[in-house]
Amino acid sequence: MRTDNPGGERCDVLVAGAGPTGLAVALAAHDHGASVRVVDCRSRSPRPSRAFLVHPRTLEVLRPYGVTGALLDLGHLGPRMHVHLNGQSVSARLGDFRLADTAYPHFLLARQADVEAVLGRALGDRGVAVEWDTRVQGYEIDSTRNSVVTHCGAKKFESRYLVGCDGRSSTVRTAAGIDWRGGRYRYEVLLADVDVTDDVQVEDAHVFVGRRGLVFLLPLGERARWRLVATAPPLRSRALAGDMLPQTMLDDAGASCRVVDVAWSERVSVEHRLAARFRNGPVFLAGDAAHAYSPAGGQGMNAGLQDAANLGWKLAFATRGSLSDDSPLLRSYEQERRSVARRVLALTRLLHWVEAGRDPLSFFARGAVSSMGASLLPLALRQRRLEARAVRLLSQLRWNYRRSILSIDGGADAPGVASAGERLPDEHIRVEGGRCRLHELTAVPAVHVLLCRDAHWPTTPPVDDELVKVHRILGWSGTGVVIVRPDGYVGFRGADSHRAGAWLRMVGVGSASSSE
């Protein structure tokens, strides 16, 4: 494991942007052996949260870095959601979904600011401090030193790789000459911290369904008890401005509660955009710098954190010296995550239309839901299999990298746990030390080699690599081998240990491990 040198100006990975994505990229790269630095143009003062939902898959990919427990402690785990339709209310819990293959079968309500605080503390514990008030102005590539020189005012940072996690107006993306394709929605999102009358349950979340759209009241206010989130109409008059708008939105959705104080409010433009590329040579994009979604479905922060889980370990492995910038390992990031981003973009555009569309058809659909939903929603909520499928889709549990250059599947006697490119499901297993769950075994930053009971694993020449962990699963019969990537996806599945060793060499961590 490499030791960071805060006093020096050169590092393996320089991350621009200390939001959730940037902090998670730095954490993943550091824990897989890279030296990292994080810069941000902001001061230390926190910004109001714009994201509030953490998905099951996100909790899984953050688990190896020891932060998931802290997130669960700070958030609202599986809160009760009250859906208000046409004067009636239907309740359901955002937890305990029928998902047997994950330790986190629930959504987590958590402020973006709390997610940033947890990730920032984890980096601080590792000796990596965010360098605030440091604005990236551009960069140049020094081919003689195989490095990127990033200009931040009078300061220059030299790194092997630069990662732009600096948001929708990314300076890194602009400097890299990468097109920002898409556009803006016609309507903005209203965020407000409010206090309301006491006729709503104070520890629960509320959704008010109206013909003009949905209004959310979440128990996550930062300057008042409630955070109100709604899609706001164009600002045509001062009557829709300032403190009057939250009450107007609640009235339009048929809410009976009254706003008694507006402690803070902000209108945020909403975009649907996708970067034409996710990298330019040694410069990479992640999070909002790479894609911008409607907030419908809570995809933005979660997609960025999963970008980070995908990219961080790859950059760290690439700095080990044997891989070129054109290696399959580095090429796979854009191939995998841009493909997912396209699908998430399509999903969020559909959800945005359902939630906030202003065309006659969406008005009619929401009107039908408002009039009939109180009787139909309880029936829908009892369809647990349908519910589980929807959760898998929203939380990216169903997304896969089967077509990735890193996904190699084949050979007789391959374990049936998952195909190459698919997320490794959690399940109860038996190992030499007893019984445990599979994700407990793999919740360590490393590549994990899972051997079936009779699998042969070569030990010559021995490779003592702390980033390769080998486990024999006594309950899996046969001679197959499964290699699990650090982000929890199956990279290799087969019965040929030599091909498995070739996969390890392809990602830069040697051919075999001498310990089981």
From TrEMBL:
It comes from the Bacteria. InterPro entries: FAD-bd, FAD/NAD-bd_sf, RIFMO-like. Gene3D superfamilies: 3.30.70.2450, 3.40.30.120, FAD/NAD(P)-binding domain. Residues 10-346 form the FAD-binding domain. GO terms for molecular function: monooxygenase activity. Signal peptide: none annotated. Keywords: FAD, Flavoprotein, Monooxygenase, Oxidoreductase. Its cofactor is FAD. Coiled coil: none annotated. The keyword Oxidoreductase applies. This is FAD-dependent monooxygenase. It comes from Rhodococcus chondri.
